[in-house]
Amino acid sequence: MAVAACSGGADSLALAGALAFEAPRAGRPAGGITIDHGLQDGSDKRAEAVVRTMVGLGLDPAGSIAVTVDGPGGPENAARDARYAALDGAAHRSGATAVLLGHTQDDQAETVLLGLARGSGARSLAGMPARFRRSNVLYLRPLLELDRATTRRACKAMGLDPWDDPHNIDSAYARVRVRHEALPALEKALGPGVAEALARTARMLRDDADALDEMAARAYSDLETSEDGYNAAVRLEGLEGLPRAVRTRVLRMAAVRAGSPPGTLAAVHIDAVDRLVTAWHGQRHVDLPGGLRAFRRSGKLLFGPV
Fold first, then answer.
1. Residue 8, annotated ligand binder?
2. What is the DSSP string of the chain?
3. Among 53, 60, 174, 188, which one is most buried in terms of CB atoms within 10 A?
């Protein structure tokens, strides 16, 4: 069974409608789920309305889950973490083989621009994958090739009335500023098709990043060693000669393996660790997120607690 994650907005509502239309024709069951983040007055009533719409479309089971948004990393990250945790649980309970997400080409373009503004590497600029797994749940984004205007037309054609989340016009959020200010400015300056071009760039960068990650994983497996009192260690011999794009990925893998949180482990940290390998002049250590340090000692690069 496939389950559509539906907020009631045009993108996810069009997705729910498409799933409800296609699943019976393929002889497959299909359900829907909406997440009540509790961030606005009346959000529970909104969730109930979305459930009624999904039931009306023929999605079964259809339900809502209320979550508490109080995690680290700001409200957007906290909401995303709570949402995915709820979707993971719902998929396991229902036995769903896949959860469908309504992200579009426009969402992908916004993600690429946000990554570019942060000075992120190829993996971040590669945007959102069309499919991924987490907590043993398969997630799919079947609308990544479609723009937002198409989903609105689809809703109109299906007689569906999408809900416009007030957060989507709140300029306090960086993504909203990109959507309503940055992308229109780029379209005005460069001509139409910027969002499509950014999404196309993301696809190409994802291919490159996947290949480099695979190379780095093999290199890490070859170079990984152990050292008492340290969470991770790699041999320096063979590390320095790797292409920088592969070497820095190996260093990131080692830091994450040692316990450094991936979400706060930034390029500046990895660059500093890389200097322990390629430009070592007696530096003692590099501090990393998660209360860790990287050391160079006895032919090894060591990652351990402060």
1. yes
2. -EEEE--SSHHHHHHHHHHHHHHHHTT--EEEEEEE---STTHHHHHHHHHHHHHHHT-SSEEEEE-----SSHHHHHHHHHHHHHHHHHHHHHT-SEEE----HHHHHHHHHHHHHTT--HHHHT---SEEEETTEEEE-TTTTS-HHHHHHHHHHHT------GGGG-TTSHHHHIIIIIHHHHHHHH-S-HHHHHHHHHHHHHHHHHHHHHHHHHHHHHHEE--TT-SEEEESTTTTTS-HHHHHHHHHHHHHHHT--TTT--HHHHHHHHHHHHS-SS---EEETTTEEEEEETTEEEEEE-
3. 53
